[in-house]
Design goal:
The protein is an alpha/beta fold and 366 residues long. It is built from 12 helices and 12 strands. The protein has an 8-stranded mixed beta sheet, sandwiched between helices. Strands 1-12 form a two-stranded parallel ribbon. Strands 2-3 form a two-stranded antiparallel sheet. Bound molecules: guanosine-5'-diphosphate and magnesium ion (MG). Guanosine-5'-diphosphate binds next to helix 6.
Length: 366
């Protein structure tokens, strides 16, 4: 019986040091002591606030991954229940277990190979060692994708184009991403490039209002490439740091839509030959292995530079992230772990695996 996720506690080992502040020379000793108190109080408050927020996000990741944890981690545990050591039969059971989770054939093969090598040298491997091997293999698989999105200061506006099928979470991710960048003092503008549905334009406008930022939009049915082109011109003249553009939910099998996407890229390059600077493919984790086809097709058409995997909360198919990493090696920039504005996390391979394997109490290093 899997343990209840609610009981799981996350202890975050945070390296959040208070940032140094240059307050200038103090006029009098009294003043300087007062300022020092204020400085430490303020930094302690900021640090406490940040830490609470971080712990909140990490524990949210742990609870979000509970269904994937049940399938993968509890599933592995079941195989070993009552046994202290692994043998050939348990290895076969483990292989079946991995194959039926969403990690994919290649990942399963890699893990089983590693365990076979270990078994050859050590004859018997204890359960804890098996789990450690699986964890470190999973980390190795994610590692090449562990590349955060870096907004270059030399590129202004930095253009982020979101692509993906309808309902994958593009517009929601834009709202969350805008908030993240605003928190880091970037000047942001949004482009309502999904002109296919009136609701999509409205939805982006609401995110714009929530974040208090400009949304460049035209009416439903207008040319998506033209909207994004206008937005880039406006962003340039307003000295915007990052322009985030939405696009319609193009069916990856529909060539007309895919051609439109190519047109968006071509038209942007009339203003800036290096744009878009990030093509962020938004993938819905709940579709499992189908996500792999989407990566392939979007990558062929427009060249995907980063991936955001959404809806990792509440799905048992989160293991697909390992299949995506193994097969594509495309950087995973963010993961979506809920519908609200703070539910977007920059991806961190080690943290992800730690959260996935988190038991009642776990220590996760940030
Ligand atoms: N649970 C959950 N829901 C999400 C997440 N990201 C997006 N959604 C929901 O998925 C639905 C489709 O999102 P939307 O942004 O409109 O998708 P789009 O068609 O690609 O723009 C909405 O109901 C969102 O609230 C996530 O990380 N977790
Ligand atoms: Mg949308």
């Amino acid at each position: 019986m899997p343990r209840c996720w609610r009981e799981r506690t996350v202890i975050l080992i945070s390296s959040l040091a208070p940032t140094a502040r240059n307050d200038g020379p103090f006029a009098t000793l009294e003043n300087s002591v007062l300022k020092m108190f204020k400085f430490f109080k303020k930094n302690k408050e900021t640090s406490d606030k940040n830490e609470t927020k971080q712990v909140g996000v990490v524990s949210k990741l742990v609870s979000g991954l509970k269904n994937t944890h049940s399938v993968l981690v509890d599933g592995i545990k079941e195989i070993f229940s009552g046994k202290r050591e692994i043998d050939q039969k348990t290895l076969e059971e483990l292989e079946v277990k991995l194959l039926t989770s969403d990690v994919g054939v290649a990942v399963t093969k890699q893990i089983i190979e590693q365990l076979k090598i270990k078994l050859k040298h050590e004859k018997n491997i204890e359960y804890e060692a098996v789990l450690d091997t699986i964890k470190s293999e999973l980390e190795n698989i994610l590692e090449p994708c562990n590349k955060p999105l870096i907004i270059s200061k030399d590129i202004r506006p930095f253009v982020v184009l979101l692509v993906g099928v309808n309902g994958s979470g593009k517009t929601t991710t834009i709202g969350k991403l805008a908030k993240k960048l605003l928190d880091n003092s970037y000047k942001i503008m949004l482009a309502a490039g999904d002109t296919f549905r009136a609701a999509a334009i409205e939805q982006l406008k609401i995110w714009g209002e929530r974040n208090n930022i400009i949304v460049v939009a035209q009416k439903q049915g207008s040319d998506s490439a033209a909207v994004i082109y206008d937005a880039l011109q406006a962003a340039k003249s307003r000295d915007i740091d990052v322009l985030i553009a939405d696009t319609a939910g193009r069916l990856h099998t529909h060539h007309g839509f895919m051609d439109e996407l190519k047109k968006v890229k071509r038209i942007l390059q009339k203003i800036d030959s290096s744009a878009p600077h990030e093509v962020l493919l938004v993938l819905d984790a709940t579709i499992g292995q189908n996500a792999l086809n989407q990566v392939k097709q979007f990558n062929d058409v427009i060249g995907v530079t980063g991936i955001c995997i959404t809806k990792l909360d509440g799905t048992a198919k989160g293991g697909v992230i390992f299949a995506i990493a193994q097969e594509t090696k495309i950087p995973i920039r963010f993961i979506g772990i809920g519908e609200s504005i703070d539910d977007l996390k920059p991806f961190d391979a080690k943290e992800f695996v730690a959260a996935l394997f988190c038991e009642e109490t776990c220590h996760i290093e940030e």
